[in-house]
UniProtKB/TrEMBL annotation:
<feature type="transmembrane region" description="Helical">
    <location>
        <begin position="6"/>
        <end position="30"/>
    </location>
</feature>
<feature type="transmembrane region" description="Helical">
    <location>
        <begin position="44"/>
        <end position="61"/>
    </location>
</feature>
<dbReference type="GO" id="GO:0006888">
    <property type="term" value="P:endoplasmic reticulum to Golgi vesicle-mediated transport"/>
</dbReference>
<protein>
    <submittedName>
        <fullName>Uncharacterized protein</fullName>
    </submittedName>
</protein>
<dbReference type="InterPro" id="IPR007277">
    <property type="entry name" value="Svp26/Tex261"/>
</dbReference>
<dbReference type="Pfam" id="PF04148">
    <property type="entry name" value="Erv26"/>
</dbReference>
<keyword id="KW-1133">Transmembrane helix</keyword>
<dbReference type="InterPro" id="IPR019183">
    <property type="entry name" value="NAA25_NatB_aux_su"/>
</dbReference>
<dbReference type="GO" id="GO:0097020">
    <property type="term" value="F:COPII receptor activity"/>
</dbReference>
<feature type="transmembrane region" description="Helical">
    <location>
        <begin position="140"/>
        <end position="159"/>
    </location>
</feature>
<dbReference type="GO" id="GO:0000139">
    <property type="term" value="C:Golgi membrane"/>
</dbReference>
<dbReference type="Pfam" id="PF09797">
    <property type="entry name" value="NatB_MDM20"/>
</dbReference>
<comment type="similarity">
    <text>Belongs to the SVP26 family.</text>
</comment>
<dbReference type="GO" id="GO:0030134">
    <property type="term" value="C:COPII-coated ER to Golgi transport vesicle"/>
</dbReference>
<keyword id="KW-0812">Transmembrane</keyword>
<dbReference type="GO" id="GO:0005789">
    <property type="term" value="C:endoplasmic reticulum membrane"/>
</dbReference>
<keyword id="KW-0472">Membrane</keyword>
Amino acid sequence: MWILPLLGYVGMILGFAFLTLAIASGLYYLSEIVEEHTVLAKKLLYRLIYGVVGIHALLVVVDKFPVGLSLLSIVSHGIYAQNLRRFPIVKLTDPLFLLSCALVITNHYFWFRHFSAPPANSYSSYPYARDTNIPTFTEVAAYFGLCIWLVPFALFVSLSAGENVLPSMGSEYATGDGSSYINPGKVPDSYGNGSGVGVGSSVPGKRRGRSGTNAGMAKAVVTGVKEWVGETGEVMGFWKVAPSLFASPSVTAVMACNSWDKLRKAQRDYPKAKFADSFVQKSLKKTPKNPFLLAWKADLALQLNQEPKNVALQIQQVWQQSGAYDSRLLAYLYRLLAEATRRTDAAARCISGLGNENSKAWLSAAKTLGRQERQELWSQMGKAAWREQCWEDFRFAVIQYSKELKDSVVPASVRKHAHFTQILATQLAAEQQSQLPGGGLKSQIQFDLARRLLKQAYEAPSDEPIACKDIRDLRFMGEIFARQGKCDELINLWNNPPAALKGLVATHQADLQSMRIRLSRESQNWSLLESECLATIENAIAQSAADPNSKAIWELCAWNNDVWVYLLSALRINRSADEAKIIVSDILHRAFGTDLKAKDRALRLTYMTLRKFIEASLTDDCKTFWRHHSTLPSCFTDIRQFVEVLTGASEFGGKAQLFEYFNSELIPGEDNFTQKDRQTHCENFQKLTFLIVASVGATVWQGQQPKVLEDVLRVACGFDGFHSPNSPAGYIAIYILLQLHHGVMHEDQAVHPFGNTPNSRLLLQATMLARHLVACDTKDKQDRPRALLAARLHLNLGLGKSAFKMYGYTKCKEMLVHTLSPYVLSRISLTHPFGAQGYGGFSAEEELGKAIGTMERMESKTEDTIYPDISALPWDQAIGLLHLRRKLKSSLTKHICNVERRRIARLKGEPVDQLPTLDRQSFQDVVDNVDTSVFPDYGSSQAVGPVPLIMPNMVPNLACIVEGYSIWDTSSRVLYRETQTGDHIGSWVDEVATPAGGHQVKNNMTVAEITAERIWVYINTVVVVMDFCHDKVDLLSDMVKQLPENLHAIRLAMEKLRMPSVANLKPEDEPTMFHENMLISCYTKLEVLRALSKMVDHLREKVIGPKSSHPMKAKLPKNWVNEIESETKICYEAIRDVANSYITLIERRGEAAIKAQVRWGTTGAILRDVMSDSDVESYASEYVDSALQAWKGVLQVKLK
């Protein structure tokens, strides 16, 4: 036979093919099921694992399966379950995942050996009977399928759900570059992208490929085989591939966008707005009433800066569609409408709600749901309103949620939580209404309602669910009354508690009294504050009078010292100076007597505080306190405020007397000091010496201050623990050198000791000393403030590579990134935009990316902590957490880092569309979180601290950021073709970010930035007339003349800075070779020149072209554009010449100059005792390399 065998082979091949396709179809179907029901899939997988573990246990107990192998399988399934901890996100490099794969193979191998091994011989009366101890093939196959392979196979199929997970805190575990920022500064592709997660939110991700990218494993395998078959068949000529046949089915699935999950998938596939808009327009032609596509269209309209009123109309169109009841879709629309509303009225400080139409949409959705689902719906609305701070809508959601609980059987704690959450919502809504025009009456009604609800809970019987039962409830009550300025009413209620609360009030009487005083101070009710403080003090005095052994006065001084401070503050406001002194003198006499003999620290500090208020002499008091407490670490902080009273110019005698006493008087018991006591005593003496000498020396030392400071420097450097971590001697030595440098730099140029070229050698000495002290801290670099100080000083000298080496030692918690990073990262774009290469190098972009990523994670974690769900809202902590959230969201640090990244990208000629953009909410109530107390301060408590000496070019303030957006960012967006719309970002940033009373301080731009500002104003004028306001050509008259003149002046200034190749100067007299001001001067000018080059291109394209009819064309002189281009190129070459001249100078004489300048003068001689010549030589070599890297960065900037 010939034909029948061939038919057999063909049938076998077709059968195998059909079986393969059936398996592939099943995999696809299961993958889709898992994608759409990830929560259910996770539950089923857990129950499946529990079931298999139970089967293993039964097999051991009943069928006597081997215990060892069964335990292996049970442990394996426990490890399989660990893969579900972030389900459906699976990281393929996770050790648990890899271990699971190994255990699958291990289990199969050992169980296969177990079933393959011959069983032990057993006796049977019938020799041909089947041995019942030997499992059949069916039983073995079933065991392998259910107990060995079922769970791994289910996990394998479920991996495909990972690509469809919504952004959340768990999604940072995803494979690839996740939002855990595996690559520094890079965020996950699906995190905060502009197309789906938020308008103006975080970094957009890269567009994924159409197939096989980030797909689940099951899909990837089947899709890969399908595409290989299609491509191979096409190459061999068997067929021509039809796109619909072998293209990835995800495209077809995305086209539908008929569910929230599919919408999110499509948004991840189209992260860029312009591509996404094209996709949405095509999809809407097929399904014009698809609510998910219409919502995405509204989102894209906001991203493309279209008219916000039209966006609001598009959202209303979505509400009208059937099927627009998905709570996630409604929350998405809520955010879009909130952003559109803010854009409609940029000057509006807040919006309380989004109107009746929005509420009706949520109510319509609620009608289609059951009771439990309605609770979840209102929780979702509350969360959306909470995020947008629309407190009227939040109150509405809470009320609706509470209504759903009325007819439900829920625990009493749930009803109480809902009641107090409603109080919180009413209070927040009232506060917001009071800020809106015409909202006074409504806010007063809501304030009254919040207090009435609180009184209802306060007066309720103990068996009522909403009744106050603990001190937590009373604290919340106090916060609400104080925020309304109703402290008098609150105290009256607490003085007359209901019967059910008398025991609670009596138990916490001291706590409630402290709250009364604190709340009176916070609400600035000064008369009430005075009466409460006096009552507390009189009570303590009465107890002491009744019982001589009573410690009431001591407890008040030691544990509640704020009472004394608050009383003095209230007296200053409520009373005249003489009347206040009489009251304090009487208290002083009755509480402490005429002459306090006690040595106790708390008593003496309060005694001295009161005597300072009545302006009594404190010299003897300071001596007494020093004599008894000089060995306490807190001694300097305690005594500083009193020593300052003696250090004015008019009391030089008292200051000198005290200084002499500190320096020469023998402390009683000094011979018995331990080593630690003696060290602490010496440290306190050095701090007080610096306070007395340095803080007011300029007014009393009659020109001898530098010599006196050098003497203090000598003493500090001779201290035994000078090199120890946290030693104040090291800080004092650095501060003295900085103060001397500050004095030299601000002397009159006519009498300047270095002629017309100020030298930074004192700054170099301070910087190298800081570098050396950090190097001496060999035990885990414990002194982190000193490392941060060293990093900042190196940046002052323009030594970025060395600075970031020091900055690497300031490892801090995520929360401190907001407070500390600006000391290093502000203006990094104008000093080291290109970072440094080689060993120990750094990337400015990566450092900024790390900071931004950390701040975004902190903000996200805080948001999730505040509002995980309406039923878990921490109502008593919510106001404080809201303040923290506002500090994170509107952090000045975040604005600084975002500005720096954009400036770096433009200097490098890189696109900025992948960089973060901040929405309008981020510019409201911007908070300066920079910690000015991070560096130890031993100067006057009335001064601003050492920061101005440490960082002369201060951290940019809000006024500087706002003006920067108006000056350079708006025109740069147009010139670099980053936008095609007329959205003037500078104008709305100014409206939103500027406080109602205006900026209290001027912007703190550097001199170089102020110089460049003039040219930026001219560039802005050209851009406005060229692209947006064609009828304002009259604005060009001054610009046409002034711009070439300013460019010429820049060129002349830069040519003067060029260093000669030969100079007959001693190494210690060499002029400054590296300083951040020099780099800032170069980069600010290069920014301008690059913008001018772009402007020339735009003018040729839009204005002066032969076919152009632009009105601006007639206003520009004939060769004006060519002249600007020519002058721009000349200026660019002049800057490069300056950079090359300094590079040559540093390579030839840099190291010798550094070593000589560090050893220069009296200060250099003093430093010989703490830094060896080998140390100086090593640091000098490091500084030369760092300086060369900095100057070579200037040469990397291209004009085009």
